[in-house]
Write a structure and sequence with these properties.
single chain; 261 residues; globular
Length: 261
């Protein structure tokens, strides 16, 4: 049976880089989790073995589920139903397989339900996902948006959202607007604080958002009235469960065909 990790020895090479020992020690904080969590490594060798096991599982799923599903996903594509995006049926199979394998919240601390992997094995897993289906890799790898929330959110937000991503809920980063593409300082989606509702209300349009109907969004919006540059922008958390967003259009993939003579 094919396995994108075992069949690609050049991938494992990265686990033996001279800097990996330092990377692992920093990520594991000198293995302080070993007495708190059964799956936490006790030393460097144990950590590398854990990474290999996870990467073997990823290699199996990508080679034998995600890649065989890729053509069907492209043919069916996502579609709109009552203002909501619905994935292709095989994409749901891919999501189910990766969730059951525990391949979500890969980089997050164990206290939130994550795997606490450093960027190296995470990138290796992402490369295998892209090899199998670049479109699904986009969906899966956008879980990395949680790094922004983890780094800049407060503890209440971390406890609320990070465990959900670790369980397999999807994410997106909502930046681009009809008149703000490469120049994100021109973003004009308006954020207004509502004293009545006790929260920020967002009003406007986002466009070309990868996985734009995800479960949890990080949304760039203008929170300072009268500003026109980056100093008036803030990042907001939008939870799909709250409603209030309508998907107007799904962008189709772009294909390029080449002829060589």
């Amino acid at each position: 049976m094919a396995n994108y990790f075992l069949d690609s020895p050049e991938l494992e090479f990265h686990l033996h880089h001279p800097l990996m020992k330092k990377i692992v020690e920093l990520k594991e904080r000198n293995f302080e989790d070993k007495d708190k969590y059964e799956d936490a490594p006790v030393d460097y060798e144990d950590a590398i073995e854990n990474y290999k096991r996870l990467l073997e599982i990823t290699g199996d799923i990508t080679a034998n589920i995600i890649e065989p599903n890729s053509e069907s996903v492209d043919e069916e594509g996502p579609h709109l139903v009552d203002g909501r995006m619905v994935y292709a049926s095989k994409t749901f199979e891919n999501l189910d397989a990766t969730r059951k394998a525990g391949l979500w919240g890969v980089s997050m601390p164990r206290r939130y339900g994550g795997l606490n992997l450093p960027i190296t094995p995470y990138s290796m897993a992402s490369e295998m996902m892209a090899t199998a289906d670049a479109g699904f890799q986009n969906i899966w790898s956008l879980q990395d948006c949680i790094e922004t929330l983890y780094e800049f959110g407060n503890e209440e937000q971390r406890k609320k959202y990070i465990p959900r991503v670790c369980q397999g809920e999807t994410m997106s980063m909502d930046l681009t607007e009809p008149d703000a593409g490469s120049d994100l300082q021109s973003a004009m989606l308006k954020a207004t604080y509502s004293e009545k509702d006790g929260c920020w209300l967002l009003n406007g349009v986002k466009r070309f958002i990868t996985n734009g109907d995800s479960d949890i969004h990080l949304v760039l919006a203008r929170s300072e009235e009268g500003t026109k540059d980056g100093r008036g922008l803030s990042m907001f958390i939008y939870d799909k469960r709250q409603g209030g967003v309508t998907v107007r259009h799904i962008e189709h993939k772009l294909y390029s065909r080449f002829s060589y003579v």
